[in-house]
Specification:
The complex is a heterodimer.
Chain A lengths: L6 H5 L2 H42 L9 E3 L4 E2 L1 H33 L2 H15 L3 H20 L8 H25 L3 H9 L4 H12 L1 H17 L2 H6 L6 E2 L11 H9 L10 H31 L4
Antiparallel strand pairs in A: 1-2, 1-3
Chain B lengths: L45 E12 L2 E7 L2 E3 L3 E5 L6 H8 L9 E9 L2 E2 L7 H7 E4 L10 H11 L6 H11 L3 H4 L12 H13 L5 E5 L7 H14 L4 E5 L3 H7 L2 E10 L2 E11 H6 L4 H7 L5
Parallel strand pairs in B: 2-11, 4-9, 4-10, 7-8, 8-9
Antiparallel strand pairs in B: 1-2, 1-3, 1-5, 5-6, 10-11
Helix pairs in contact in B: 3-4, 3-6, 4-6, 6-7
Classes of the chains: A mainly alpha, B alpha/beta.
């Protein structure tokens, strides 16, 4: 037998406890830094955006188009273009992505899945600048111009289709994960009652995976709204845009507006309001994405079928 | 013997049927009947007939040469140690094994004389005639009502859904417990209630055979007794095949018992039917040494 246990035996190693504290403070520091960065971004955005708002005439925010260097800061132009391009992207991505997810999760043989899933993940990894270039050199002349002969070389349609290609893998992979995590027991229950595959997918798997599917769509929408490069390259209107609802016109989204003003060629630094308008648009973009996220969270909590 | 059961067609001949059945049995809470040995009757006609059935997964031989006649309105139990293929055999009846890509059935399984694996037989149609209750209660994460209505709805049921839901729940001895909360989620029910809900859900499509894959193994003893009571009631109208690893359960509820065993060959386990006869006989005077060892607890 060893020595009887005394209270000293339970005190433990002082060095170990010091190390524990050190490690803990390291992690706390890491957390604090990232919070500090986020706060700094919001503060600097808000500060400049406020100085922009306090100098600009309200009438300049609602004019005929977005030409910041001429003092025309029509915010609706950017919002409409963003909506159109993200909308076209979602129209492409939702059926394509959900179809892919359903096929992979419910129909594909294990072998087909082994090939397809990585392929789709590769697609998700294509840099958006490549897709932008592709939208410009292929989608625009080969697809958009053939279907709509009146289309100009730079269109929101081409950019939207490019964005759709970009976000399809996102919808597909996140939705597929959600569908696959629906327990096998529920599928068996459905098949056991004489449901075929299509019915099982539609009435059992989809509702049970709804929270994940909606999450994938919101994620995709955030990505579509925040996407810059494809829009910048393929939607044209780099110098500014007129307000338009026609997807066959060139257009400038919020992101593209920031990019074109902030790139070196435009030399806007110090140009007063044009420069500061960037911060305002940036803040707007930030708020929209924030709102999307909280809406999706609430939706998911409210409507999911918990299994 | 010439019941023409149409497993191929898409049309649904079943729908009107549920109303014509007997009035529902009143649920009993206590006084489980002593049914040890059951009431097998050779006059009952054979409804499902296994002849030399082998099941393979790829080139893995899971079950070897099973011959079992299942008689109408009896409870047939499949017992045996784990891995003996009793569930596999059960799932080959309603073709649930089709969901596993590599699964393959040899030999013949007939249902009302129709070969269930004949070309053109649609598994979806088969499952509308042969209902199934699973080991783990698996209600859909929907309301109680929607759970019951699911099967009839997809089969194109045109009658009064409220009545059908009520009748199915009555038959499953669950109506009194849930009638005031039909729109609440089924997941709020206890495990035993969920399993009775699953039975009600299976009944709602008016099958004539119910397959039960260890339906009480996830339940406590009281819930188990209720399920056994219920099976006894359901026997009036349905043919029931139950897989169970609980020998007492088989002895209590079943009319006939098939005992399966397993041969281990180079690490691969192949199930095999050892003995099939009336439950009273198999538990009192088994013909095979293996059966006797198993039911007396010397093996398995």
């Amino acid at each position: 037998m060893t020595q009887p246990l005394t209270i000293e035996g339970l005190v433990g190693d002082r060095k170990r406890r010091r190390r524990e504290r050190r490690v803990k403070s390291l992690f706390v520091l890491a957390g604090l830094v990232s919070i500090a960065i986020s706060v700094a971004i919001v503060v600097s955005l808000a500060g400049e955006a406020w100085s922009f708002l306090s100098q600009v005439e309200l009438s300049e925010l609602f004019t005929v188009g977005w030409f910041p260097r001429r003092g025309l800061f029509d915010i609706p132009t950017l919002l409409i273009a963003t909506t159109i391009i993200a909308g076209i992207g979602m129209i492409v991505a939702i059926p394509l992505g959900l179809g892919t997810a359903s096929y992979l999760a419910e129909y594909a043989t294990p072998r087909a899945r082994r090939w397809l899933k990585p392929t789709i993940e590769v697609l998700a990894g294509i840099p958006s600048v490549v897709l932008g270039f592709w939208a410009l050199t292929f989608i625009s002349p080969e697809v958009v111009s053939r279907i709509f002969t009146s289309a100009k070389p730079f269109t929101m349609m081409a950019a939207g289709l490019g964005v759709g290609v970009l976000i399809t893998p996102l919808v597909a992979t996140v939705s597929e994960d959600a569908m696959r995590s629906v327990p096998r027991e529920l599928r068996e229950a459905s098949y056991g009652l004489g449901a075929d595959r299509a019915t099982t997918v539609r009435r059992v798997v989809f509702p049970a995976a709804l929270s994940g599917i909606v999450a994938s769509m919101i994620l995709a929408l955030s990505r579509a709204i925040g996407e810059t490069m494809i829009v910048f390259m393929a939607a044209g209107a780099v110098g500014g845009a007129l307000r338009t609802w026609d997807p066959l016109d060139p257009g400038q989204t919020m992101t593209a507006a920031i990019a074109s003003l902030a790139t070196g060629s435009d030399q806007v630094a110090g140009e007063g309001l044009a420069f500061q308008s960037l911060f305002f648009v940036g803040l707007l973009l930030f708020l929209i994405t924030l709102a999307l996220n909280s809406v999706s969270n609430r939706f998911v909590r409210k409507y999911r079928e918990q299994y | 013997m010439t019941d023409s059961i149409d497993l191929v067609s898409d049309t649904d001949a079943e729908t009107g049927k549920s109303g014509t059945r007997d009035p529902t049995p009143t649920p009993r809470v206590s006084g489980r009947p002593r049914v040890t040995g059951g009431t097998p009757n050779d006059a009952n006609k054979v409804i499902i007939d296994f002849k030399d059935v082998d099941v393979y997964y790829g080139d893995f031989h899971a079950v070897d040469s099973v011959t079992v006649p299942v008689r109408e309105k009896e409870i047939t139990a499949f017992i045996g140690p784990s891995g003996c293929g009793k569930s596999t055999v059960l799932r080959s009846i309603n073709r649930m094994n089709d969901l596993i890509e590599s699964a393959r059935v040899e030999g013949t399984i007939t249902y009302h004389g129709v070969d269930l694996y004949a070309p053109g037989v649609d598994p979806v149609e088969v499952r509308r005639h042969i209902g199934m209750v699973f080991q783990k209660p698996n209600p859909f994460p929907k309301s109680i009502y929607e759970n019951i209505a699911f099967g009839p709805k997809i089969a194109g049921f045109k009658g009064n859904m409220d009545d059908l839901v009520e009748e199915s729940l009555l038959r499953a001895a669950l109506w009194n417990e849930v009638k005031d909360r039909l729109t609440e989620t089924a997941l709020a029910l206890s495990g035993g209630q969920q399993q009775r809900l699953c039975i009600a859900r299976a009944i709602a499509t008016s099958p004539d055979v119910l397959l039960m894959d260890e339906p009480a193994s996830a339940l406590d003893p009281i819930a188990t007794l209720r399920i056994e009571d219920l099976m006894y009631e359901l026997k009036q109208d349905y043919t029931i095949i139950i897989v169970t690893h609980n020998m007492q359960q088989a002895a209590r509820v079943s009319d006939r018992t098939a005992f399966f065993s397993v041969d281990v060959n180079e690490g691969r386990r192949t199930g095999r039917l050892v003995e099939f006869t009336e439950t009273a006989k198999i538990f009192t005077s088994p013909q095979q040494r293996e059966t006797e060892d198993y039911i007396t607890g010397r093996f398995g």
